[in-house]
Structure formats: structure tokens, C-alpha cells
Amino acid sequence: MATLTYPATRYEPSPVVDLAARPERERLSPPALGAFFRIADRWSLRDADARQLLGGVTNGPYYEMKKSAKGRVLDADKLLRISYLIGIFKALNVLHGRPLADEWVRLPNSNRIFGGGTPLAYMMKGGAPAMQTVRRLLDARRGGM
Predict the structure, then answer these.
(1) Helical pair 119-142 and 76-95, crossing angle rounded to 10 deg
(2) Residue 51: per-residue pLDDT
(3) Which of 8, 72, 112, 119 is most buried, by CB atoms within 10 Å?
(4) Does the pLDDT of residue 80 top 70, yes or no?
(5) What's this model's pTM, rounded to 2 decimal places?
């Protein structure tokens, strides 16, 4: 009887980033914050909304991060949240022209996930799991599924 095996791939696997390792977080934090604040600007987010998307950051640390990302080290949760938002931003810009891509998170949405509310409100309320859901939804649309 023949043994079935998984087909070999010609691609090298991407290395897994250990977000528990401080050196990795030190390396990733400044560019992640830069990307986050550029996305917040493009989406015209209020500071209170941006702080909530980061996991409820208080005013002082938020404005310090906004002023300068240099030397900041984010925890794994914040890096994960920013990663989801970058993926959402990218998918929206693949799916839509810039005006709609930049407004999409603030527009009421009839998809049953959002229940007529905005994707932004959904993500603010649901945190990282909601961001993951939005990213998966957009990635599926982007892939034609």
C-alpha cells in the first residue's frame, strides 16, 4: 500500500518571530509605531480611538509614542494588534481605491459581523480577536473567496 506524503514545497518557511524576546520587540517596535500612526492618520482616527485600538493606552504614554517611537519597546499584544491593522490596511488598499480604503473602517457596514455598525467600532469593542476577524474577512475577499 502506498504511503501518502505532503507534497514538498519550493519555498523556504518564514522564520517565526519570538515576540516574547525583548530584542525582537526592540527591533520591531519603532517601525510598527511609525506604521500605526501613518495608518491612524490615513483613516482619520481620533486619538481616543487610536489609543483604544492599541489596547487602551493612556494619554501620557500614547502622546510620548506619537511624538517619538525611538527607544520604545512595545509588548507582544500591541505588536500583534498593529500587525493586524497593517494587514487590514494593506487588504483595503488592494481591494479599493484610496478614498474608500481610507474611509472603510468608519463606514456603516451591512456585513453580519458588524451588524450595521462600523468596522472601527467592532475592532475597538472586540480588541485583537475582532481585528483578526476583520483581517481574515478582508484577506478572504482579496483572495476571491
Answers:
(1) 60
(2) 97
(3) 119
(4) yes
(5) 0.88
Q: Which of 112, 33, 14 is nearest to 74 (CA)?
A: 33
Nearest to 136 by CA among 100, 87, 81: 87
Grid cell locating 128: 485583537
Residue type, 100: L
Kindly report the three-state secondary structure assignment for every residue of the chain: CCCCCCCCCCCCCCCCCCCCCHHHHHHHHHHHHHHHHHHHHHCCCCHHHHHHHCCCCCHHHHHHHHHCCCCCCCCHHHHHHHHHHHHHHHHHHHHCCHHHHHHHHHCCCCCCCCCCCCHHHHHHHHHHHHHHHHHHHHHHHHCCC
